[in-house]
Amino acid sequence: MRKVLQQLKQYKRDTFQCIGLTALEVVMEILMPFITAIIIDRGLEAGNLSVVYRYGGLMVVMAFLALCFGAFAGKKAAAAASGFGANLREAIYTNIQTFSFSNIDKFSVPGLVTRMTTDITNVQNAFMMVIRVAVRAPLNLIFSFAMCLIINRHLSLMFLIAVVFLVIVIGSIMVVTMRIFRQVFRRYDDLNASVQENVTAIRVVKAFVREDYENRKFSKASRMLYDLSVKAEGLLAFNNPAMMIAVYFCIISASWLGAQFIVGGSLTTGDLTSLFSYIMSLLMSLMMLSMIVVMISMSMASIRRISEVLSEEADLTDPEDPVMEVADGSIDFNDVNFSYKHGSGKNSLSDIDLHIKSGETIGVIGGTGSGKSTLVNLICRLYDVDGGSVCVGGVDVRKYDTEVLRNQVSVVLQKNTLFSGTILDNLRWGNPDATREECIEACKAACADEFIDRMPAGYDTVIARGGANVSGGQKQRLCIARALLKKPKVLILDDSTSAVDTSTDANIRAAFAREIPGTTKIIIAQRISSVQSADRILVLDNGRINAFDTHDNLLKTNAIYQEIYTSQLEGSGDFDQPA
């Protein structure tokens, strides 16, 4: 809760002003029945019109003030709640940007989306209700009860019975519904995941005619959410019957006992009239409090989920005095062990001792799950090692400023992503200050210029969301050009030429040798042809180094490499078949 409320920041003033204005509005409204009693007793029954006019005018002024206080309070509440919601979204988004891959792995993407949309909307609505209704209702309740005590202490004690009854009923409902709403929001995550997966992979769904299956899966998730929601709302429906029981009890008690007090002369007609007004005000306050209970029940589950993200601290942090310059592109793995679940004993990489000179071209090959992508993720410090060290430019990557390191270690990942905007906009992710000429040169090196020139708008062609209007090979080449614009000391291609033909692949590698000879290049590939011209080739097997040598030597000495080479040369078998 504290983490969430910290995001009020500049809207604290609006919040307190709203509370103050609401309190003044309540004071004005509470005094009106009291003045009504004076008008009845001293004016109408005594036949004194001057009292009626004088106190009637006072009531008009108080009503106008209550209206003004209420209007300004509403404006301040809207500003504070909307600003609070905006700050929460910004805080969550900013914190997510600091997450390492291991942090992101703890939260699903649909779960994060739900937190930034549905959960924050719930909290924003609840906050507005709290600073308006949750301030107004208790004050109204307290002041109304105080006025009832002033008018007639014996009658007022009847209200306590109704209040205790409602507190017990509403409290019981709140405890149960809060537990159900926690499950509801988890189901929202599942529903969002189903929608996101289906829409993202809609081409695959249609290609395999799986629409009916996806509809059934969505319907199942939707039905579970429906059942939980009905269960929660069914419990909350008991609020109204409980409230009506309390209302009828108070009205009947006040009518019966009030009539006896009037006959006995201990209560005037004006006092009973104002007493009924205070009774209704008191009960309306209780009704509003029950609505607040519903909102708080829903928002508490949301607050917990939002707090989880805000409280999550990045696993990877910069040292106090970080190294701000990468000397060269040399890479050293010194007895590295790594596991995605620290302490599990299931290493993805074990006993990796590897030394690469600056400017070398290194090929990496191995079966699925052999640890190729994991290996290169450690170079740019997307994860930290469990044991040993990874050094770039002779310095442990944990001693660098993370931004400095990643600017000098450019990675083209397996899953290539383009963003909405023009081709130039996407290329300048690599270097925001790159000129058009520099972008064109990078595209020539990545062999992307050939298809860009054929596009009607050339480099100003708009890329659809996710790169839907370019092919897989075109997307890969644009991502390579984007990485080249960073002018890195280390360039990592994680199977990022798999969708281009062998001729284009060869041209890209030739351009690398010509354009960036001093850059260390690590090429993960499925094809032998993509790595055979490398200075040395690393063969990984089950997270361990099986061999590290030249293409010619590996063909002579390494069984795994020989098997891969033979299977691809003959056009039979599969890369992943064991030697």
TrEMBL record:
This is ABC transporter ATP-binding protein/permease. Keywords: ATP-binding, Cell membrane, Membrane, Nucleotide-binding, Transmembrane, Transmembrane helix, Transport. GO terms for molecular function: ABC-type oligopeptide transporter activity; ATP binding; ATP hydrolysis activity. It is found in: Cell membrane. It is a multi-pass membrane protein. The keyword Heme does not apply. Residues 19-298 form the ABC transmembrane type-1 domain. It comes from Candidatus Mediterraneibacter quadrami. It comes from the Bacteria. Coiled coil: none annotated. GO terms for cellular component: plasma membrane.
